[in-house]
Amino acid sequence: MVFMYRLVKAKTFRLVTSPVPVPYISRQICSGLLSIRKMNGGKDSASEDSISGGAAIKLRPSPDCIDRRECRGAVETSSNSLGVRHGSFGKRRSMIDLRSEQRSGDGNSSKFRNKNIPARVKRSKSGQSYRKPDEGANHVAPFDICLSGSRDSTVLKSLQEMEENQENVEHPIEESGGQGVLRPGMVLLKRYISLGDQIEMVKTCREIGLGPGGFYRPGYKNGAKLRLQMMCLGLNWDPETRKYEDQSPADGCKPPCIPRKFNQLVETAIQDAHGLLGKDCTLSNVEDMLPAMSPDICIVNFYTTTGRLGLHQDRDESSESLDKGLPVVSFSVGDSAEFLYGDQRDVNKADKVVLESGDVLIFGGKSRHIFHGVTSVIPDSAPKALIEETRLRPGRLNLTFRQY
Ligand SMILES: O=C(O)CCC(=O)C(=O)O
Ligand SMILES: [Fe+2]
Questions:
Q1: Where on the phi/psi map is residue 42: left (φ > 0), alpha (ψ -120 to 50), or beta?
Q2: From ligand 1's centre to the CA of 400, what distance in Å?
Q3: 314 CB under 6 A from ligand 1?
Q4: 356 vs 358: CA distance, rounded Å
Q5: 156: CA distance to ligand 1 center in Å?
Q6: What is the reported pLDDT for 148?
Q7: C-alpha distances in angstroms, 112 versus 100, 138, 223, 395?
Q8: C-alpha count within 13 angstroms, C-beta hemisphere, residue 131
Q9: Nearest 5°: phi and psi at 255?
């Protein structure tokens, strides 16, 4: 074990110092390239049901972390269309073993809620890895956003029918249903993500979410739990400390990397939002209204049909990012949700929009600090073909991308 630790330390060092890509680096290692510098605390804005609070740690996420090629050590087989490699997670086992060893030596273990970090990773029949807690450990297995078992043959529409209904446009931008500029810096792209990409997104999130740093139910300092399951990619946001950190509070694992395809979708969505804003002839530069960004953080939330999220501001990213108004880009997949937004933390003064599966909501510039939240998830509103293909649980998957 000591030998393995030295070996991995050596690989980490090579990645930092050499321009030549290291052939296999686990996501744990790649996330370990973050540099952390303590900063002032205190910009807290989170309430009981809200998700973001005040920044207290300055992080510099490694650009390598968003490059799945640098994370191949965690997986063994082929890539799917979203750039995430499916298959078994043979390397993870050794990394998890390694991590527990590291922790026992670095005196940090008291930091983790689950004191006994699992030392074993099991592989299911499908090749998915999942953590098997050590006997007696206070460990909760990651939440599975999909149901197990066979597909429901009573589903009404076939995948093919659904694709046809979408007219097979790569990124259809519809003209109705709340589409467009909701307020300065806030753009809603209705049904923007194709059904195929939604399906891949669910499968990818499920796969990552069952592994180290996967889905868990976060809580606040006072012990109250959020009404959702969460997983963070790139950097971990912890509602308990209200900071970005380089490990999950649930299991001490480094946050998984953001799949390259997710980032591409974000960047294309921002460009298309610029296209919409550009139709307003009074705007000389659309980037003044909505700056572009390259995400290095993705918070993935799964809401069951009783899930919700209180009004809050997302303001734990770096002051540079916030000052520039770099946008939050939100993808909705699964059941629709009622989304509130406004200038104050007051539901009675907030506007409401229904976010449906495939919608992309972007808020930056003058809208970067809006209060927003999810009041309800609308049951049985997800596209049937999405459920048929993925067996996504009843509820809603939401991914919010940010640049630290
Ligand atoms: O689920 C949503 O639409 C919003 C999520 C959100 O606000 C957050 O993760 O900060
Ligand atoms: Fe938020």
A1: left
A2: 6
A3: yes
A4: 6
A5: 30
A6: 87
A7: 11, 11, 15, 29
A8: 33
A9: -65, 140
Per-residue pLDDT tens digits for 345-373: 999 999 999 999 999 999 999 999 999 99
Q: What domains lie within the chain, and their CATH numbers?
A: 180-402 (2.60.120.590)
User: What are the helix and strand counts (H, E) for the chain?
Assistant: 9, 17
Cα distances (angstroms) measured from residue 377 to each of 46, 127, 308, 335, 355 = 21, 32, 7, 7, 9
ipTM of model over 0.90: yes
> In angstroms, rounded to a whole number, what is the distance separating the alpha carbons of residues 12 and 64?
12
Q: Residue type at 152?
A: D
Crossing angle (nearest 10°) for helices 195-209 and 260-278:
140
* Alpha carbon distance 154, 199 (integer Å): 19
Q: Are 314 and 155 in contact (CB under 8 A)?
A: no
Residue closest to 133 by CA, chosen among 236, 251, 249: 251
With the most atoms of ligand 1 within 8 angstroms of its CB, the residue from 230, 236, 302, 309 to mutate is 309
- Tokens 């400390």, located at residue: 241
312 labelled as ligand-binding?
Answer: yes
CA 220 / ligand 1 centre spacing (Å): 16
Range 29-49 average pLDDT: 37
> Which CA distances in Å does 121 have to 37, 259, 278, 281, 343?
32, 22, 50, 57, 46
DSSP state of 314: -
Residue pair 31/246 in contact by the 8 Å Cβ criterion: yes
Please give the average per-residue pLDDT across 26-50, as a whole number: 37
Query: DSSP label at 241?
Result: T
8-state DSSP, 366: G
Ligand nearest to the CA of 297: 1
In terms of phi and psi (left: phi > 0; alpha: psi -120 to 50; beta: otherwise), the region of 242 is left
